[in-house]
Amino acid sequence: xxxxxxxxxxxxxxxxxxxxxxxxxxxxxxxxxxxxxxxxxxxxxxxxxxxxxxxxxxxxxxxxxxxxxxxxxxxxxxxxxxxxxxxxxxxxxxxxxxxxxxxxxxxxxxxxxxxxxxxxxxxxxxxxxxxxxxxxxxxxxxxxxxxxxxxxxxxxxxxxxxxxxxxxxxxxxxxxxxxxxxxxxxxxxxxxxxxxxxxxxxxxxxxxxxxxxxxxxxxxxxxxxxxxxxxxxxxxxxxxxxxxxxxxxxxxxxxxxxxxxxxxxxxxxxxxxxxxxxxxxxxxxxxxxxxxxxxxxxxxxxxxxxxxxxxxxxxxxxxxxxxxxxxxxxxxxxxxxxxxxxxxxxxxxxxxxxxxxxxxxxxxxxxxxxxxxxxxxxxxxxxxxxxxxxx
Length: 391
Fold this sequence. Notes:
2 domains, alpha+beta, 5 strands, 391 residues, Alpha-Beta Plaits, disordered N terminus
């Protein structure tokens, strides 16, 4: 395998960012920005409350029109209640299901208005608030626009019986539909604002502010995904600990601003070199960690050599020649182990190997021996040997 040969197919795809990984694992950052279970509960509650309130009309004389409209009305309310129970039991809804239920709600309002004797008294356009709230909070822009158009059509169809005069009807439809659609739009915009703030907050808590890479917290959060994938594909998890050589000397000679510039350049070079499925994180100071899946030691070493070469070619305006020592450790995930604990044990082994690379001249890759057992890690504390200082 040559040094320029890709390790995996799809190498030409850009590496995923921390936010991309979070979106995959966290439903709260899905496309519609809402947890599907919460959405299911909310929609089930709206359907149940709407059916319960609507069913009260069956108990009041003079509300429903005589004839076949009464059984049609009863079946409609029962259908809403059943639909709410189904959603509650399934506890999950997708965008298409939510959009369908909102449209059905708009149509149900028209059925209710046609079933009562006086739509102005018993089927006010305010009944559409149920659908408007659901649409504003759960739908995307296209389906929201469709719902807003249906609101205008529903108001026109319902109020047509009460305002035969065209001018009066136009005024009433405009006022009612405008209020409902404006409220829908305001809630939608507020929801999008909340979503952007949430994504920004998650990014801040999971991203190193200097380099834009994943931080320690994000690295730990990705461990269960990587461990699960390794067991499924029969591969090994590789941890590569990278530590810049003579970084303290660089900071002393050129200042911390120059050191920060070097870290940014190195991080950009590494991010362009790692595979799309790898996790690249800055765990502190000049130490970075790459976590990914490999078949064997040879593939792990090849990846490490690619990263070492990328760092050597990165440079910066402050320091043209930058080198890195890399320690590599592999493990085959077992069932029942805690991925976070196993991750730090693996990183500790790679950390020991990285020190071996420094002791043998730096700017090289060292593989951890399987028998090496690093010193115990204190929860939340520094990595082993961190107190000795790195050069």
